[in-house]
Amino acid sequence: MDANERISSLRERVDEVDEELVHLLNERARLVQELAEYKLEAGIPLFDPRREEEILRRVVEINEGPIYDSSMRDIFELIMHRIRDIELQRRGE
Predict the structure, then answer these.
(1) Given 13, 30, 66, 78, which is the most exposed site by the fewest CB atoms within 10 A?
(2) Other CB atoms closer than 10 Å to residue 86's CB: what's the count?
């Protein structure tokens, strides 16, 4: 395999991983929306800072790198923040 073929092959794999990430992030958002609906029906507050910290701690624990733990935590904080924004927009808040 020459250099161009190798680069092309790696780029294809990156595209595949990006596609998986998009699907997984949307699946996560749908699950959070379902959870939010259930919490509203049950009269439970939507935002639980202890749960968010638990998620962030777990993400760092399972992180195998090469992404730094602090960076992985930042990425997940952003994901959770953006998904919470979707929920707030749905509710007109």
Answers:
(1) 66
(2) 13
- pTM, two decimal places: 0.86
Q: Residues 39, 45: contact at Cβ < 8 Å? A: yes
Of 71, 49, 50, 48, which is closest to residue 59 (Cα–Cα)?
Answer: 71
Q: pLDDT tens, 35-91?
A: 999 999 999 988 899 999 999 999 999 999 999 999 999 999 999 999 988 887 887
> Cα separation of 83 and 78, whole Å?
8
| Residue 68 in tokens | 């730094």
| 25 in Cβ contact with 79 (< 8 Å) | yes
Distance between CA atoms of residues 79 and 50, nearest Å = 17
Whole-number Å distance between alpha carbons of 59 and 56: 5
